[in-house]
């Protein structure tokens, strides 16, 4: 009744990464983008004498949290694949007339 199972799993190359792998990658991207905000604010304080540079660094740091959330919530799109169906010709070995 039970079919014998192979010890080595079948490799499916078109399978997308697991949910945990996708979540870990999105968390990593979020942390990277958010970690860029602190140096921008610190550099703005350091360059306070050069007002235009400090202002540019502060303005750069404002949209970073919003961008980090958008990047972190972005999942890869699902693949639209047509199902593989067995053709009748392949079953009988004859060409349809």
Key words describing this protein structure:
single chain, 97 residues, mainly alpha, 5 helices, elongated
- What is the terminal-to-terminal distance? 39 Å
List SSEs in N-to-C order.
HHHHH
Helix content: 40-55%
Query: In angstroms, what is the radius of gyration?
Result: 26 Å
In quaternary terms, these chains amount to single chain
What amount of the residues lies in strands? under 5%
Biggest pleated sheet? none
Average residue pLDDT: 78
Number of strands: 0
**What is the general shape?**
elongated
Low-confidence stretches: none
The total count of helices amounts to 5
Category from helices, strands and their pairing: mainly alpha
């Amino acid at each position: 009744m039970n079919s014998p199972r192979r010890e080595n799993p079948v490799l499916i190359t078109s399978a997308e990464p697991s949910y945990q792998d996708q979540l870990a990658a999105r968390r990593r991207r979020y942390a990277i983008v958010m970690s860029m905000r602190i140096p921008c604010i610190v550099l703005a304080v350091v360059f306070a004498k050069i007002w235009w540079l400090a202002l540019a660094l502060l303005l750069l740091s404002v949209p970073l949290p919003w961008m980090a959330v958008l990047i972190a919530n972005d999942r890869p799109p699902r693949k639209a694949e047509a199902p593989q169906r067995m053709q009748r010709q392949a079953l009988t070995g004859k060409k349809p007339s």
